[in-house]
Write a structure and sequence with these properties.
This protein has nine helices and nine strands. Strands 1, 2, 3, 4, 5, 6, 7, 8 and 9 form a nine-stranded antiparallel sheet that branches.
């Protein structure tokens, strides 16, 4: 399949340039994708971010060099993108549990993060209903948070953010700002590749200026693929997210067009088995 070959090409590119500075735009270009969509797809398919994968591969190869040859630690640190032995030692210890110098000792146990490979896995035994919606640009007002994408931290921090907004009155304030529209939006904004962070909004549509303590932004016009999630939060919607990137994108003629994605939460009990909410993803047909 085309998407499989694109991901393989991106992995080849990363391996070929593993000792060089890598630009996310160039990596994504190799996969014929936007940087935002490539990072989301990669993370959904592998469970790690692009930056985390590159870092773990570099530390794996660095450990192999130290164990099998006798280069200076400084030379290995510089080769794999670390500006100082101290920074390299800190990262190396976190990955392997020992110092770089200790990796040279006979019998030392090292951890290896092998190169990833993608294989076609036949799923699709469960249909995915979706609809295509054209929506003009709209203004939102709400509160934001920045969360790390490392080790799935965003999947834990975002539900906590919702809980906090429910407890501190933000939820009710946003319903007031929604001017009769009781749907809340959870918006995933652009991912920061270097910092491996994601900006997340809890917001409502509103054209008025943001009150004190709140922020506002414009969601650009787009063609959206809209998916329905049924079940208790957050597990139900996280499962739909995974299926979108693992099954729907690879199996259709659409690709992510870049820009924000959002979740739409109607009134109701989010812990109930029949709670219905939606995922909106900006898409375009593959070129």
């Amino acid at each position: 399949m085309e998407w499989l070959n694109r991901m393989k090409d991106a992995l080849d590119y990363m391996e070929q340039h593993i000792t060089e500075p890598m630009n996310m735009d160039e990596i994504a270009k190799t996969a014929c994708s936007s940087p935002f969509h490539f990072q989301r797809l990669f993370n959904m398919l592998t469970g790690v971010t692009v930056a985390e994968y590159i870092r773990k591969r570099r530390l794996t190869l660095a450990a192999q060099e130290l164990a099998m040859t006798q280069p200076r630690v400084l030379d290995v640190a510089l080769k794999y993108g670390y500006d100082s032995p101290e920074a390299f030692t800190k990262a190396f210890r976190k990955a392997h549990g020992i110092t770089p110098s200790a990796a040279r000792e006979p019998g030392t146990v090292l951890k290896a993060f092998p190169r990833l490979s993608f294989h076609l896995s036949l799923k699709g035994d469960k249909e995915m209903d979706y609809r295509i919606v054209h929506k003009e640009a709209f203004n939102v007002v709400g509160k934001t948070m920045e969360t790390s994408c490392r080790d799935g931290e965003n999947l834990r921090e975002i539900p906590r953010f919702w809980l906090k907004c429910n407890e501190d009155g933000t939820y009710n304030k946003l319903l007031e700002l929604g001017e009769g529209v009781h749907d809340l939006l959870g918006i995933c904004a652009e991912m920061n590749h270097e910092q491996e962070t994601l900006t997340y909004w809890i917001a409502v549509e509103n054209d008025a200026p943001a009150p004190d303590g709140y922020s506002t932004t414009i969601i650009p016009a787009a063609t959206w693929a809209v998916f329905t999630s049924i079940g208790p939060m957050p597990n139900a919607i996280q499962s739909v997210w995974a299926r979108i990137f693992q099954e729907w994108f690879p199996g259709t003629g659409y690709e992510h067009s870049g820009g924000p994605e959002f979740e739409l939460y109607p009134p109701g009990d989010p812990s109930s088995e029949d709670y219905r909410c939606e995922i909106w993803i900006p898409v375009m047909t593959k070129s």
